[in-house]
Protein 1
Amino acid sequence: MNASTRAAVAYCLTRGHTPVALHNGFPGLCRHHDDQPQGSVREMSWLDVQGWVSRGGSEIGCNRALPSDDMPKTAWCFEKYKIDALFIVGGFEAFTAVSELRKARTEYPAFRIPIALLPATISNNVPGTEYSIGSDTCLNALVDYCDAIKQSASASRRRCFVVETQG
């Protein structure tokens, strides 16, 4: 997720846009947008993201909450911070959030902006996609772990090894 956020920031900067990160997702936007000394809505520069390419996870935080938890406040924050495009990196909940924002366009003009979703989940369960960021990395790590367990198990006698995975 960090590498894709870094790439999005680099893309925006090279095209003259001002990338803004919404730290901790929609709850961060709605509840902590004006916290002091630093709110959850922050402009991003190249220096902020330059070292993220090799870091796993999400430096800006992630959250599974949906904008429908407080749609009016979400729309108000979009207007306040003049958000004119949205790039979301996430899984099934992110897909649901994009769907909710699209459906709310009739009631909230703030959501009549370009919105894009980059699937990123180890579950690989985002509708309409073949692959997502994280699923291949997860599967390769599982194969490595299983190989290490098999090597240990082959040297053991009368023991059972069980591997349980998500999904």
Protein 2
Amino acid sequence: MQTIGAPSIGNLIVPHLSQRLLLARVGWQYRLSSLHPLNQRSFASSNDGKKNGEADGRGRASPGSSDSSTKSTTSSSPTSSSTSQSSVSSDWDENPDLNISAFSQLPSSTFGHNQHMIINSEFKEALRQILWQFRAPIRYAFAYGSGVFPQTASGSKSASTVHSHPSPAISSVQGGQGKMIDFIFGVSYTQHWHSLNLQQHRDHYSAIGSLGSSLVSRVQDNYGAGVYFNPFVTVNGTLIKYGVVNLDTLCRDLSEWDTLYLAGRLQKPVKILRDDPRVRLANQINLISAVRTALLLLPSDFTEQELYGTIAGLSYLGDPRMALPAENPNKVANIVKYQLPNFRRLYAPLIENLPNVAFHDPRCKSLDWMDDPETNATMAQDMDPKKRGNMVRRLPRSFRSKLYFRYQTKFQIPQLEFDKMLE
């Protein structure tokens, strides 16, 4: 049995998101009238003179700004200088070079380190041993879902026989719950990969596998989100589900939100088992885009959990499964609640370089607050319509074009006038 990645989630999300973004207020409307600044505030941790634009996560002013100095660090800074992105040069999210082939070509030596979650070392090794059971070359791989990152209290245990003979590390981390572990494999050549994998693991495929790797790859690349899943497969005594995606498809979705299918998964904590420089760069674009989108949906004052909950919920907006009684209505809240330190590791280095948002909580002065799951820090953002309009302008291209079209249709703006607004 296999499944194909779902159709464009972005198409389902845009109607929900466009209504909540209130683009007439936060978008390009400020260009057409003399709106006064809305609810502007002074941020102690962003005295960098960036008055006309929203920061880009690289520690430099956005286009149109008269100052390119970096955001200064305060005692409440969520990360140390070692994890800060403020030293990163080059406009990596506006003009990314997704043709790089080495990690040395990334904007800095620590670029994207926030994407790597820290998990039990024996558990990590057990996951990597599963990858070694595939002879077909896997360039990029990550494990995700509740089988890797618990979404319930650690004390709740229930005996399960899902895994036939799992490693002790997997049994220990899952607490006896026996959850299937989900993987995504990024590959360079789809047909070649399936050809090799069919020779080794024909039993992983359903009847479509008997028709050859050419048909399997065509189904993968031409339908849905470009991901071909083989679910309910046992490897090393562990029940897994793995999806195969071409690296070009993965990078395109991460950088442009073409479908938001894989981008949505990587907006939540995952365990990267094999890394690739192109994917790391594209995913950093995905993460900063998720922060910008969440800020557009939030009020001036909010909490960490509200921010991360909004980000985690992006890929579920418009998802018909969330309306089904079988789906846990608290799924997004549970993801954030039990993975709060991991969300901080993922997003705090990006947040601290944005001049229009800051942590405003005395608890952030503590050196160990990053690992404290009980801290739900308060935050605040500048509601200046120009900065918010600039955030809209920096949303991923494919997603932004859908959003613009929705705006044009809603207000019945003639095409010529609409084109002038976008200039």
